[in-house]
């Protein structure tokens, strides 16, 4: 089997992480997983939602959107339709949980970091790119708080990144693009920390149910991909 | 460690499956996973949604709801608030995908089966109970179509059931109730067919990220629980 | 004339009142008017809506819903459509007014009792069953408050129940089921206290306008039906 | 007892019915019940709603609104809030049913008459004024259809009007204004045809439940008031 | 060229301004620009929106609506559709800005004047009539505040009025009615103070782009029309 | 007076126009007016809205959005709030009208061009940048139709661009950035064709009403700025 993208089964797309992409946000990252481009901003607000008031802890939350023509055919604008789809809500809840897994909300203090992940061009894997880019934006936003003296130590406990794995024409492959994703039997998104712990795993058999052996192979691929992403995050933050 | 429910780590709650619970629906099941009680109805409609018109295939879709006082403190009614929460949408999308995994939509023909899973009492595990009960309602609804001669062979290809597993006080446990769920480190919902194939897997580290070894233990527990549920489904359908 | 249900013109359907039907609510009743089954829960909240804050009185309010397949053909789920129908709003306003007629809101104190009447199977008369069942749930909820010492005397001043009357094939009849209701000339819902006072009356000529004489006959039937319901409520609460 | 309005207990407010109040609608009436002023328009549309297509009959429907400052203190505009209140929906459903009671929808043919009842100044009794004025607008709209030859005989079978009755300081009174309505024990709206048949009756005990005797007295008052309104409708249409 | 309305190119329609048109509002004006009739009410509320709390200044805001059958064919009711159109929002924002231009919000104090401009009959120019009438209602509302001693000097700094100009069959004309508006090349709404300052100008080339010379001619016409409107406002307020 | 941006009064910010910015859309432009960055895509759809069906002409429409953190402090996401603000609707209506002014909808044929203008970084003038960039995207989208042979001649009749002018500290200035815009007395947006015709003009006195002389000066500045923008559009399209 040859992947449509000509990549090896365990090969990521070209990853690019551009910090300070826009000027207003405390963290502003443009991340590219091949032709998937997502702007991830982190905005710090010096208050918490009502359910946390007075509890001495912070909050981290995320929203996700796609520009209407980020995809091959134009989608309706969610703001015009008056509601976010179930898919959008699933993704933004996933992003929020993933980031909360690597930040100590007590240490963050009574403030909120809002993440906005907006897809300007889509080619599969927008949620995994969003999580991976949002982590970098979070580090920058926390850096701002440290610089201003609003925090004295970082509340971030580990890095976090995400990647998709799937079964394409019978073989486990890493980091599906849109063509592969549209035609695969199984699609699984894995979120892991830089230290190799699992944060989230969401797998769906699009066609045939899959076996335990396939599951194990996919988890191996994912762990390897996440390691590479963690290194790229570190490099991007080092410059 | 002793579970709050006194159950063994690999022990399901008492499961009860009552068919023909209401009189109008083609399939109508009350399923109980301990104190979690869900009414699952299957309604057959002789048409398909717009995006499938004229394609010679059927559709299966699901909606989910909780009665406002199915829980310990009253929740707002989603119809009154004017929208379904992200959690509700996630769950009903999961139920729909799970059932579509075990039905041949071509053989179903140009008709839709709508599932409604309404929780009348909640004690953890409402989504797994919903999937497990909805499968039984699906068999009854298809039975009606076979009896009427609208179908000559069943489009159902396998059974499907779901169960939760988690890590409670450091140990993998099966079928979490509300108290365990509120206090666990990791929560994973697994959907499998009667033949042992994976359909869906959704795991979240609520606290600490979890290791590959823990993942493996949880998958073992889930597979065993699903086997028992599949037997109970068969028994319920035999009477 | 023979009624489709074979009942005498002044005969109620079989009434069943099951208390403590679910475990979380302060009052939780399953009431059956024949094949019409409604879960009525009463939830106590220790605060009042904004317009009553600081006025030293309580509030009683109700919401109503039908499970999508409680009826012969599946209805859209109101939560999914994003709004409650005019019919739903009329019914829940009626239930709320009926219960407020028999409770002293000053004596209730600054707390709210929320009623949820959810129809799990419908065969006509869902609003009258809801009111009749909700009264029983209210007594149980107030009982909880008395037991906890939050109230020292009951704020309930009388019992309340409701029944429908109509003109079917020219003759006044009591407690219409769905078949009768669909084909009747006049439909009237009457809410009365156990002491025989009128709380609400809502009559509609579906076909021909009706005369004063017919009105009088319907009111007589209703008064008699309510007396029976009041006795059944008392019996249910005695056990 | 003296009524705040100084009227006798069985005395209507000054009623004024102005036809052709605006120029576009097929029927356009400004009706005044004292200081309650409502514009009632009837708009003919040459099609029917989806559920009636091809059934060879027409439809009559109504919408109701209040200008934000038609009342003593400004209300939120329903269009700005994004939904109609339960009260609004109850009233417009009542108006629609009342008009359908006196028109033969078969004879109307496959067309719809939309009524819009917009309150420009409110002083109690807006729904009864709306029904009474809308009937006059309906006659004018049907007159237009007869003139154009779209109808050869009127589908209107009787006149219809509405009035409120209540118990104010212990005595039954006719046509409550806002001050009386705010302070009455019982409020009942009665819709009757010119021939004296009941179309709708909606009574509510605001304070104490009311007796059968009081009910009878209120019905007598209402019947007398409706007779007067029917005469005023006839006079208005004669000019 | 002759205008459909037979008016000279620089001729306004017959303008009528009726104060105290309804009884509840602090200012209540019915304004007629020919067959365009708008009720403009000003409602004083003794508080300000959240974003102005504690800033020692007042606020002026406006809402706009059209009765469904104010136009030649019935429009959907915005309250029933559940949202205001883009056109409605544009117009009400324009009205609000226009009025704020001639009132000193500091001198108004911490209170809000809400304007409601409701079109009961439309024949073009509803937004210009709304602004012109709302100004008169504002003077009356402020008069009420002065009378009650809540203000000691008027916060109103100038008068404001609005008129449309356009290019109809090649010639600049003043105050377009509906027929002219539907068929014109350019449509411009101009809001000016009584002292001749520009407050708002909104011009649109419906067909061909227009030249600077045409722009100049239209501005001349508008300035002249506004002068006349300012005089009519003064006269109306003098009586 | 010195402008905060140090620019001469008649000086535009640095303008940059990048074509083919994303890969899916028929036209995809990133336009920069200084620190204001907008992605403008043109999407061709081979059908028209319902109101134009069968009329043998095309349609051009636009939507506008701002990423939540395109601004100094994070704004609510309109998709999450469930509706577009009045400001958003005004802007997208303006963009649509501006583009329709320079395209022959008959020649376009029965197809729609949807424009999406999404602000990724805002510093004043987002609507003028949107119009100016969308024109370039329109030329590219039409180019695609010509290449595919779906059109044989261009329906575009002229170019169109937009710029803001205002009065800042008493002096007319061109192309206001955010700081100038927040503090100016008058703000006017002007849309003109490459041939110098006016398409739209929208001016607002934020503070003092402005005089005819100021109006004339602002129109002169705008005409000059538009000329420069038209040249830059031509250059961008030539490469």
TrEMBL record, chains A, B, C, D, E, F:
One of its GO terms (biological process) is rRNA catabolic process. Residues 11-141, 159-224 form the Exoribonuclease phosphorolytic domain. Pfam families: RNase_PH, RNase_PH_C. It comes from the Bacteria. Phosphate binds at residues 87, 125-127. Belongs to the RNase PH family. Phosphorolytic 3'-5' exoribonuclease that plays an important role in tRNA 3'-end maturation. Removes nucleotide residues following the 3'-CCA terminus of tRNAs; can also add nucleotides to the ends of RNA molecules by using nucleoside diphosphates as substrates, but this may not be physiologically important. Probably plays a role in initiation of 16S rRNA degradation (leading to ribosome degradation) during starvation. PANTHER family: EXOSOME COMPLEX COMPONENT, EXOSOME COMPLEX COMPONENT RRP41. Homohexameric ring arranged as a trimer of dimers. This is Ribonuclease PH. It comes from Methylophilus medardicus.
